[in-house]
Design a protein that fits this description.
- The complex is a heterodimer of chains A (221) and B (815).
- Chain A is an alpha/beta fold and 221 residues long.
- Chain A is built from seven helices and ten strands.
- Chain A has one domain: Rossmann fold (3-Layer(aba) Sandwich).
- Helices cover 35% and strands 27% of the residues of chain A.
- A six-stranded mixed beta sheet of chain A has the order 6-7-8-3-9-10, with helices on both faces.
- In chain A, helix 6 links the parallel strand 7 and strand 8.
- In chain A, helix 3 packs across helix 4 and helix 3 runs parallel beside helix 5.
- Chain A is globular, with a radius of gyration of 18 Å.
- Chain B has 815 residues and is an alpha+beta fold.
- The longest helix of chain B is centred in the middle third of the chain and has 38 residues.
- The chains are: A alpha/beta (221), B alpha+beta (815).
Chain lengths: 221, 815
């Protein structure tokens, strides 16, 4: 599904060049559930952002389902990730001014999907995640677990092929965390490709492959 | 999508209540002012455009033949800005040419001659039953007046109302004033005490609308005027009436104008015999469309001063600009709080254009709210505005469609000016910014500094203007005019000839018996400088002097020293001999005449005998230098009797005069004024400007402070972490306050540097219009700078002190 070849990313600090990512090779097949692990500052989030096309890189090749991402312009890249990738964040990042319903609906608005269709899709996912009763509440009125649930619903609403999650359970207690991970496993079983960044061995075990990062390099494959 | 934009916009406004209210208050005031300006401009443009025949009606004008040639030709900055046509056209013509034009030109369908339409027309005495009134705006007009102009008649027939010598049409208000009830048709009245002619009211017209340049309370036929026959006999010798020509359908005006002028060259030759040949060469007749007459001050009932229009426009533009700058400043400063949301939206699929639209909709919503508030504000403050710019705008005149259009137009324009820049800044957020937590954002000074400097520069310019204009007006009112203006009572008189002699004698006899009255005299002509100007040749050069008609004891009463020769005296008969033409000239005139002028000897140059020289004094407005003046004894009329009244006795004295006046003459109403008041009237326009500048200045500073308040709120919030760290490291409250205000003082200093030369230039130009003016000095700028700085520091101190007092733990905990 996606292929990273010899990816380098660095920042220049005076005469020094500090590598954030160094010689990254990574192949991800459809239907995989990958956990990226490593200590703080090892480049986990940077790698995830590069995969999610939110961040660029300085050297290397990136192929995403047949498209050479490194040759695309900003705008094309944006439309590519808009179509294929969903994001879940540690801090949920819901829009405070919008209700649950509106938060989930927003990605569809930006893809110019018709009103009636939008309604059906949002109703569907609210139903599936069991949060119909909460649809008119604002994020501040929800618990952390519920907010993350909304965040995942929002990531899935546009039917992406790849789900990227940056420490999805980092702000949750263990019970809520378990529920989210169960949901991920379920999604993966239904065919969703998932890449998550995590600190926790336990969460990493939900996946079927672990990538360990250290100082910007993959230390095992 | 638009629904969503509005929904989000509304919630965002609601969430940031303080910033939103600052924006709404500032913008509402500015929009209200702009709306008022819009109505003013529309009102001025609509003058005379309500006549259904207006496309066929033209005023006949002629290039000037007899203008004073010594008036300054140079035009200063303000005059150039306004494009005032200082060349004054002649708009009155002899009575007789109407018939000739009509008989020669089939293009002319009809002609309406009018007189009495000018603002400074003479008042007439109107007697209805036993009631006497003094009335202005009594028009003499041809009997087609109500057919050519769209002044609807409530009673009476428009075609026939003005036929016959004794017909008169009055307005509704007039009818009520004179006769109490509305239908006054058939009632009679007497004009100017001429009881041999009884006027019958043949029609009652609706009151003249405020946007009409033809103003009347009463219209009578031109043939009814007492001097009608004289004027016909005089042929070309007296120009007295305005000509409004009604042209036939489809007449090409420029072709007709050429034809008319060709004919005039032959026909009008006699009238041009005595004029300067140089001017005759360029002499021509002009046709001005009726609805453009009001842009000339000449004999028209409404004058639209383009200078006023321009200045008002610039002022309101400035205030609007200030409000927009406020909005931009606050929106850009507020970007920090929006970065997370905007970045996030990008991640979940928003394009840049989506975000621009969303951000712009917030501005649009704000401006729409503001426009609604502004309409209410404009509506309620209309009377104040009318008083300030001396106009009578009413919402009835302006169609509601236009009000709506103005509202929508303004909302859109402002939302684009104020909204798009912030929208671009906000939408430029990089999506990854969301994911990199812990980075702090600062307001980019590249955006905010120039905006703040712009605001302060405008404020300083306006504050300096307030100070300078105020100082100049004080200078004028305190200037020693060369005579005593206090405690002088003026009683207006309309009588002429023998009647005036009788009234004067009895009034002065009465006054002589009153211990409260210290002296008496009189003056013929008005006080505001519209005297006779007489020309004379001095060493071959054309010069002008003004002639003032005075009564005995004039100089004594006003305490004007006669420095050579003597005052007029009742005991010296030669003073009243017509041929000798005794006069008292002022010093300037005496010096101008040079050594040839001898006291007591007949002077051939000015064809009069100078019996005395008075010290220069100033009656005319201080915008002009004192020119040569000549005083002669008045014999036929005097406009004002003047009495010097003992301090504290004024009210009682006036009541005494009122009673005596009634005994002497019941024909004329009792009308009085005070010398110092009527002198100040000459400066009404300038005083009005002072008021407008003051108001604009206060609003500008207020709006700028609102913006500054919001800006400091946001910038302090953005620096909360820095402040927290500094406090932990031991900074005192004073240290923090200084830290947060220091930059503002620097920005004001820059603004002062920018505003000083601009305001110096503008105000110097304004002062050029005054012959007696103050000098602009450095302290005025210093005061303005200090004033603005203090206001700004006080405004931001609300936030800085709060930030300095805050517990650092709270701002640092979040990290």
């Amino acid at each position: 599904m996606l292929q990273l070849k010899k990816i380098y990313k660095w920042v220049n600090n005076g005469n020094h060049r500090i590598f954030l990512l160094k010689d990254i090779h990574l192949d991800v097949n459809e239907g995989e559930f990958i956990s990226i692990m490593g200590p703080s500052g090892s480049g986990k989030s940077t790698l995830l952002n590069v995969i999610g096309m939110l961040d660029g890189f300085d050297e290397g090749e990136y192929h995403f389902s047949g498209t050479s991402v490194h040759q695309l312009k900003e705008k094309q890249r944006a439309s590519l990730y808009k179509q294929y990738i969903g994001f879940v964040f540690q801090a949920y990042h819901l829009i405070d001014e919008l209700t649950v319903y509106e938060n989930i609906e927003t990605p569809l608005l930006y893809q110019n999907i018709k009103g009636s269709e939008r309604k059906a899709m949002v109703a569907d996912i609210l139903d599936r995640f069991n949060i119909v009763a909460k649809k008119d509440l604002f994020p501040a009125q929800l618990s952390g677990g519920q907010q993350q649930l909304v965040g995942i619903a929002r990531a899935l609403i546009a039917k992406p092929k790849l789900l990227l999650a940056d420490e999805p359970t980092g702000n949750l207690n263990s019970k809520q965390g378990e529920e989210i991970m169960e949901l991920f496993r379920q999604l993966n079983k239904e065919g969703m490709t998932i890449i998550q960044v995590t600190h926790s061995e336990k969460n990493a075990a939900y996946g079927n492959r672990i990538v360990n990062l250290l100082d910007g390099m993959i230390s095992n494959a | 999508m638009f629904k969503t934009y509005f929904k989000i916009a509304f919630r965002t406004l609601w969430k940031n209540k303080i910033v939103s209210s600052i924006n709404i208050i500032g913008l509402s005031i500015s929009i209200a002012l702009s709306l008022l300006l819009f109505f003013y401009v529309r009102h001025e443009q609509s003058v005379d455009s309500f006549h259904s025949k207006k496309d066929h009606l033209f005023r006949l004008e002629a290039t000037s033949l007899f203008a004073r040639s010594d008036e300054p030709k140079e035009r200063n900055f303000f005059q150039q800005l306004s494009g005032i046509n200082t060349e004054k056209n002649q708009v009155v013509f002899p009575m007789v040419i109407a018939q000739d034009i009509l008989s020669v030109f089939p293009e002319v369908k009809s002609i309406t001659r009018m007189s009495g339409n000018s603002e400074d027309g003479y008042d007439k005495i109107v007697k209805a039953g036993d009631k006497v009134f003094k009335e202005s705006h009594i028009l003499d007009a041809d009997d087609n007046f109500f057919q050519n102009f769209s002044f609807p008649l409530l009673w009476g027939n428009a075609k026939t109302a003005l036929q016959g010598n004794n017909s008169v049409v009055i307005t509704n208000t007039m009818a009520q004033k004179l006769f109490g009830n509305k239908n006054a048709v058939g009632k009679t009245l007497i004009i100017d005490g001429d009881s041999s002619r009884l006027y019958t009211i043949t029609g009652v017209a609706k009151d003249v609308p405020a946007n009409s340049g033809i103003r009347f309370n009463m219209v009578r036929s031109v043939t009814a005027a007492p001097d009608y026959q004289d004027r016909i006999k005089n042929r070309f010798n007296t120009s007295s009436h305005e000509y409004i020509l009604e042209l036939q359908d489809g007449v090409n005006t420029s072709v007709f104008k050429v034809k008319l002028n060709n004919w005039m060259r032959g026909y009008y030759q006699d009238a041009l015999l005595n004029a300067d040949p140089e001017k005759v060469k360029n002499y021509q007749w002009i046709l001005r469309p009726l609805d453009e007459c009001h842009y000339e001050a000449n004999s028209w009932g409404h004058y639209t001063n383009p200078k006023v229009l321009n200045l008002l426009f610039s002022l309101f533009l400035l205030i609007l600009l200030l409000a927009c700058v406020n909005y931009i400043l606050l929106a850009v400063s507020n970007v920090v709080s929006r970065i997370k949301e905007m970045g996030l939206r990008k991640i979940i699929g928003a394009g840049r254009w989506n975000l621009i639209m969303q951000s712009w909709f917030e501005t649009l919503l704000t401006t729409v709210i503001c426009t609604v508030v502004a309409l209410l504000l404009a509506y309620t403050s209309l009377p104040v505005f009318n008083g300030m710019v001396n106009t009578q705008i009413s919402f009835d005149i302006i169609p509601s469609k236009e009000i709506l259009l103005a509202g929508i137009g303004l909302s859109l324009i402002i939302s684009i000016i104020a909204g798009f820049y912030p929208a671009f800044v906000v939408s430029g957020t990089k999506p990854v910014a969301v994911l990199k937590s812990g980075s702090t954002f600062k307001i980019n000074p590249r955006f905010s500094n120039p905006l703040i400097i712009l605001q302060f520069s405008i404020c300083i310019i306006l504050v300096v203007s307030i100070i300078v204009v105020g100082a100049q007006m004080r200078h004028i009112s305190r200037k020693d005019l060369g005579f005593d203006k206090e405690q002088i009572l003026l009683i207006k008189s309309e009588a002429m000839g023998d009647k005036r002699k009788m009234i004067r004698e009895r009034l002065f006899n009465y006054a002589n018996a009153q211990p409260s009255i210290l002296g008496m005299s009189g003056i013929g002509g008005s006080l505001t400088g519209s005297y006779n100007y007489n020309g004379f040749k001095l060493h071959g050069e054309q010069k002008w002097y003004s002639q003032i008609r005075v009564d005995y004891d004039y100089f004594k009463l006003l305490n004007i020293p006669v420095i050579e020769g003597r005052d007029f005296s009742k005991n010296i008969n030669s003073d009243t001999i017509k041929k000798a033409r005794a006069c008292v000239v002022n010093e300037t005139f005496f010096k101008l005449l040079g050594p040839d002028a001898k006291i007591g000897a007949y002077n051939d140059i000015i064809r009069s005998t100078i019996i005395g020289v008075s010290k220069d004094y100033n009656f005319e407005t201080l915008t002009k230098e004192i020119g040569p003046q000549q005083h002669i004894l008045t014999d036929f009329y005097e406009n004002y009797f003047m009495f010097k009244v003992k301090g504290g006795e004024m009210n009682r004295t006036i009541e005494g005069f009122r009673k005596e006046w009634k005994n002497i003459t019941n024909e004329y109403p009792f009308d009085f004024t005070f010398l110092d008041d009527s002198l100040m009237e000459m400066y009404t326009a300038d005083l009005r400007w002072q008021k407008i500048i003051n108001t604009a200045g206060v609003f500008a500073v207020f709006i700028a402070c609102l913006g500054l308040f919001g800006f400091s709120l946001l910038s302090v919030a953005n620096r909360a972490k820095e402040v927290g760290i500094r406090k932990v490291l031991g900074a005192t409250i004073a240290d923090i306050s200084i830290l947060l205000s220091r930059k503002m003082v620097g920005l004001i200093a820059v603004s002062l540097a920018i505003a000083t030369p601009i305001s110096w230039f503008l105000l110097n130009e304004w002062l050029q219009e005054f012959a007696y003016r103050i000098n602009i000095s450095w302290w005025m700028f210093l005061v303005a700078g200090l004033l603005v700085t203090t206001t700004a520091i006080i405004t931001i101190s609300f936030q800085t002190v709060k930030a300095a007092l805050a517990n650092p733990v709270r701002s640092l905990r979040a990290e």
